[in-house]
Amino acid sequence: MEDSELDSSELGTYKYWQEAYSKEISNYEDHGDTGDVWFGEDSALRVVTWIAACGLARDTAIIDLGCGNGYTLSELAKEGFTNLLGIDYCPEALTLAEKITKEEFPVIKYKVFDIINDDVKVLGKFGLVHDKGTYDAISLNPENQRENRVKYIEKAAQLIQDNGMFVITSCNWTESELIKHFSDKMKFKCLIPTPQFKFGGKVGSVVSSVVFEKI
């Protein structure tokens, strides 16, 4: 039985992100405000800490799918990683990311790229592919949710080099749902522990972070 799709939201639309990042560019230029980190900084830093400790060479090619304001990439740069690429389909996001990070972290490169519609072959292969929230946004799009999710999974898998990893954090899909969605194209490796809560006798997490390996 297939999982039902998420209820659509403006968070899944290009228009929403274009307007949000345009506003954040103005806020940064006026007040130095670097903008929101989706799911919060704690969630991002847990993943960065795991990546930094997992034995990955510091020159490993890393790509952040839907990098937004570049927060995760800048934290990886602080950990000594030197081969970093952020892609986003929203040019305004990358304008903001470059304003925030280019002076302190010139090793980070950015590229406007639509993973659903563009050819991932031009990007090459990566030892680590990272996603925090992009799969969620695709899953919230009012149009072609399932079709676009399937496309995303296929393309993300194509970006992983031999012995490479895919790390995904979601607040809309559970760990078991993510494993089910991605297991046709990738092999489950482990979970990155996240804070849990208990309600009504059931234990759950606010976000789920799952690591996969190339099949």
TrEMBL record:
<comment type="function">
    <text>S-adenosyl-L-methionine-dependent protein-lysine N-methyltransferase that methylates elongation factor 1-alpha.</text>
</comment>
<dbReference type="InterPro" id="IPR026635">
    <property type="entry name" value="Efm4/METTL10"/>
</dbReference>
<dbReference type="GO" id="GO:0005737">
    <property type="term" value="C:cytoplasm"/>
</dbReference>
<dbReference type="InterPro" id="IPR029063">
    <property type="entry name" value="SAM-dependent_MTases_sf"/>
</dbReference>
<keyword id="KW-0963">Cytoplasm</keyword>
<keyword id="KW-0808">Transferase</keyword>
<keyword id="KW-0949">S-adenosyl-L-methionine</keyword>
<dbReference type="GO" id="GO:0032259">
    <property type="term" value="P:methylation"/>
</dbReference>
<dbReference type="GO" id="GO:0016279">
    <property type="term" value="F:protein-lysine N-methyltransferase activity"/>
</dbReference>
<feature type="domain" description="Methyltransferase">
    <location>
        <begin position="59"/>
        <end position="190"/>
    </location>
</feature>
<comment type="similarity">
    <text>Belongs to the class I-like SAM-binding methyltransferase superfamily. EFM4 family.</text>
</comment>
<protein>
    <recommendedName>
        <fullName>Protein-lysine N-methyltransferase KGM_206213</fullName>
        <ecNumber>2.1.1.-</ecNumber>
    </recommendedName>
</protein>
<dbReference type="InterPro" id="IPR025714">
    <property type="entry name" value="Methyltranfer_dom"/>
</dbReference>
<dbReference type="Pfam" id="PF13847">
    <property type="entry name" value="Methyltransf_31"/>
</dbReference>
<keyword id="KW-0489">Methyltransferase</keyword>
